[in-house]
Amino acid sequence: MASELTYRGGAAPGSASDGGEYSPKPSKPLSWLTRAARYAAAEHRPVFALAGMLLAAALFSLYAPSASSSDASSGRAVSAAAATFSHLSSLPSSASSLHGSAGGKVPLGLRRRALRVLVTGGAGFVGSHLVDRLVERGDSVIVVDNFFTGRKDNVAHHLANPRFEVIRHDVVEPILLEVDQIYHLACPASPVHYKIGARFLLTSTSEVYGDPLQHPQVETYWGNVNPIGVRSCYDEGKRTAETLTMDYHRGANLEVRIARIFNTYGPRMCIDDGRVVSNFVAQALRKEPLTVYGDGKQTRSFQYVSDLVEGLMSLMEGEHIGPFNLGNPGEFTMLELAKVVQDTIDPNARIEFRPNTADDPHKRKPDITRAKELLGWEPKVPLREGLPLMVTDFRKRIFGDQEA
Ligand code: UDP
Question: Which of 17, 142, 324, 333 is deepest in the core (most CB within 10 A)?
Answer without folding.
Answer: 324
